[in-house]
Amino acid sequence: MEYTKNVESVFEIIAEPNRRAILSLLVSSQQSVGEIERQLRIPQPTVSKHLRVLREAGFVESTVDAQRRLYRLRPNPLQELDAWLGQFRRFWSAHLDALERHLDRMDQKTPTKRKITKEKTTRPKPRSNRSKKGEAK
Amino acid sequence: MEYTKNVESVFEIIAEPNRRAILSLLVSSQQSVGEIERQLRIPQPTVSKHLRVLREAGFVESTVDAQRRLYRLRPNPLQELDAWLGQFRRFWSAHLDALERHLDRMDQKTPTKRKITKEKTTRPKPRSNRSKKGEAK
DNA sequence: CCTGTACATACCTTGACACGTATATGCTCT
DNA sequence: AGAGCATATACGTGTCAAGGTATGTACAGG
Question: Chain D: nucleotides under 7 Å from a protein CB?
């Protein structure tokens, strides 16, 4: 009710590698800031700042324990993410096996000269997923 | 190894609202650049740039059709995302109902001495909502 | 060949945000 | 009260990516 904007930022939140690492850490059990700091080997202010972002976005919640704060996971934002993924789930479950067989055949054969996707990868980002040739027009 | 970097960037890719919009568009069927441009009301160079990012990350692939390029979805990167989410799925399915009841009780009662997450949601910085334009919500 | 169309790319500017360093706040124990 | 630990915040800085504008490239048809 307070934040509708948050739904959008869920994606930005988990775009940060350290934040994802923190979330993964908290899956097993709740942790104090110091424990997170030591396990991930990142400076404490950085941990605190990320935790604040995660907390404000609802990914985690904290409990005070003496001088420590124990952080634990909250399910909701990750479920939102899951919900967003849902729209694609139908798609890939339908297409995956067919596509795989298709590419499998293609890879074995001599590449035809049809071009797909490879028109000009100026930016050399080796995404050697599968050599994609084949099929056009 | 090389794609480790790519796995990371999957999250950055979908952090962009326009890119998510494009992906959602392509769920139904393949589209040309012009069609995407018109439906999302964003300038053509912007669309092309996002499509390039999506293509290099393996989210989409393109087929040449005369002067057009038809873009369609590819399942793999989204499946990686799904796989990452997997580690949390156990968590939330186990904890959700219990947690909900728990918080439910907590909220009703006077907060005895345990304070959960509400310590001081000092929100001095309105978290600077990204002033994006388009992106119909 | 020339024109229009469809898309891609180059260059520049701007604004977020992640980090490091330094400092503030809060709690415990003696 | 004071020392010391655990965590949060303030501030300055560098980096990087998204958007705008302009231009390049490829294809179709008269």
Answer: 4-10, 17-23, 26-28
Chain A partners of B62 at a C-beta cutoff of 8 Å? 116-117, 119
Q: What domains lie within chain B, and their CATH numbers?
A: 2-77 (1.10.10.10)
Over residues A71-80, the pLDDT tens digits come to: 999 999 999 9
**Residues facing B61 on adjacent strands:** B72
The helix or strand, by DSSP H or E, that contains position A61, with its residue range, turns out to be strand A60-65
Closest CB to A85: pick one of B74, B78, B114.
Answer: B78
Give the total residue count for chain A: 137
Q: Where are the alpha helices (DSSP H) in chain A?
A: 6-13, 17-28, 33-40, 44-56, 76-108
Are A128 and B2 a contacting pair at CB < 8 A? yes
Q: Which pLDDT does position B85 carry in this prediction? A: 95
Cβ contact (<8 Å) for A75 and B95?
yes
What digits encode the pLDDT tens for the residues B38-84? Answer: 999 999 999 999 999 999 999 999 999 999 999 999 999 999 999 99
What's the confidence (pLDDT) of residue A89? Answer: 92
